[in-house]
Write a structure and sequence with these properties.
Jelly Rolls, 2 helices, four-stranded antiparallel beta sheet, mainly beta
Length: 188
């Protein structure tokens, strides 16, 4: 029944557009379906465009605004720097090396806190099978070593060795007819 006494300004009778729950709340959860859609849009997980967002899982680089044109590094320092010895520190330098341990004192060179040095060891051993190695001072722990088993008996090896108290040690298992040790760099 329509009450014709009440009419809208356009002349249509009131009551012609009744809202039924079965049409506007299809999941029967007590909330109008279009209101639920608006809530989901406000918390969108996937959106092709957005005026603003509090958080985003990913954004294309072209979509980032206010980014700097250059990325200059901030002031900082490095540990573990390599300091080169030029010319290299020369020890024995072609002289014979007797069997046993030889302590090597490193010159200061204005660099404090050595932790490793890069050494090159060479020589000619007598007899075959003799070897030399460089040790951390005060230990039997060797780091750079070579054993000669050929008829020529030449020894040549290089590598890093840790430093203790600005000293390292060269060990020869037998007399070395001529030999040398070069220290070319320190890692500080």
């Amino acid at each position: 029944m329509t009450d014709s006494l009440f009419k809208w300004s356009d002349g249509l009778p009131v009551g012609g557009g009744d809202m039924e729950k079965s049409v506007y709340d299809t999941d029967n959860d007590g909330k109008v379906d279009t209101a639920e859609m608006a809530d989901r849009a406000a918390e969108a997980v996937h959106a092709t465009t957005a005026d603003s967002a509090l958080t985003a899982a990913s954004v294309p680089w072209a979509g980032v605004t206010g980014k700097p044109t250059t990325f200059a590094p901030s002031a900082h320092s490095h540990t573990g720097l390599i300091y080169g010895f030029d010319p290299p520190i020369k020890i024995f330098d072609g002289a014979g090396i007797t069997a046993g341990t030889h302590n090597i004192y490193l010159p200061d060179y204005g660099v404090s806190g050595y932790s490793w040095v890069f050494v090159i060891v060479g020589g000619r051993s007598d007899p075959a099978g003799a070897y030399m190695h460089v040790r951390k001072y005060g230990t039997t722990e060797w780091f750079v070593a070579y054993a000669s088993s050929s008829a020529v008996h030449n020894i040549f090896v290089s590598g890093w060795c840790p430093v203790a108290s600005n000293r390292i040690a060269l060990y020869a298992s037998a007399s070395i007819g001529w030999g040398y040790l070069r220290i070319t760099a320190a890692k500080i």
